[in-house]
Amino acid sequence: MIPVTRMATGRGTVSSRLKGLHGKRPSGFSSLLKPVVFWNITRACNLKCIHCYISAGPQPDPNELSTYEALRVASEIVEAGLPLVTLTGGEPLVRSDLWAIARRIALSGDIRLAISTNGTLISRGTASRLRKTGFSYVGISLDSTRPEVHDAFRGMAGAFSRALRGARNALEAGLDVGFRITITRYNLEDAPRIVRLAREMGVPRVAIYLIDLLGRAGENLLPSREELRATVDRILDEAISASDTTEVLIVRGNFAGIYLADKLAKTREEFLELLSLLGSHGDCGRRSISIYPDGTVRPCQFLEGVIVGDLRRESLETILSPSNPRLKPFLEIGSMLSGSRCGKCPFKGVCGGGSRMRALRVYGDFWGDDPLCFIDPWEIASRWGL
Ligand code: SF4
Ligand code: SF4
Fold first, then answer.
1. pTM of the shown model
2. Among the atoms of ligand 1, which is closest to the Cα of residue 54?
3. Which atom of ligand 1 lies closest to the CA of 55?
4. What is the pLDDT of residue 15?
């Protein structure tokens, strides 16, 4: 995760509240043994997005955790003392026992609770209930500032206006709100526009995800490397303009953070300090994990078919153990990467090789190169004497 605003200006909004600060850094917060959790509590959703990474549909999976099982998992999370749980889906608000699950986590008092939603179901009453239940952050997906483009991505006329209404209701209820955009070749210009929209609406956070290739998201959605580099430049400019109200992050491509560190640093020390901000955020299987609707555990939400544990059969503690052989490759990612670029890259420890699903889908090699990486890491390393 790349804290663009913090890298460019030293400021943050929601990340400071959610995670606290350690000097300039919003972490120390999660660790390999205490990762942040993204819990996909259901695959059911009222929308049908073309890029949905979990291939959500109108019905839940028949194999989803029951309420009883989900509450047991919530108790395990509390016992493990994990720092932050984001309930997501599918659309988490269509699962009627969401509130009981959330209460079980919130009652611990120590765990920050967030929800990632398409925003269409957040009425005033729901926003107030989210606040009272103990949620502190609501992330709402937006694919564009143009209603017709967002609605086309989402497969529902009116989804854009309902998402914005949901965001306003959540803000009015006193919740921290963030927009989340997944950028594809069809909405690159929307990323800086959404930062502007967030600023106008008083939304304090925008997370910009680079499209990952799983679920319904196919290769046809990938932008070119040059298009992506130009978009990252525009995001940086917009993030600096909005930094008094809104923080901006880029997710699923730490190579873009290395690019920004190279662009922003004046000295070698500054470059290394900026790189260290990248390392302080959760990444796939390293400081973050994902629980799927059926109780299986993945290193993150962005891997298909990679299961590191099953909460129906094993404890969370066992799954999170660094000696778990299924988790180990992700904890030791630097030694696993084998592509001609990522495998030899001087920044592979910081970057983690970008996305494994992009490598798999485009080059057919799970441990190969990320096709979106637009930097020349050797040139950057030699510029800073590394
Ligand atoms: S991307 Fe989100 S809102 Fe869209 S179908 Fe998938 S779960 Fe639903
Ligand atoms: S070559 Fe691979 S490891 Fe290096 S910056 Fe690019 S994606 Fe990351």
1. 0.94
2. 6
3. 6
4. 65
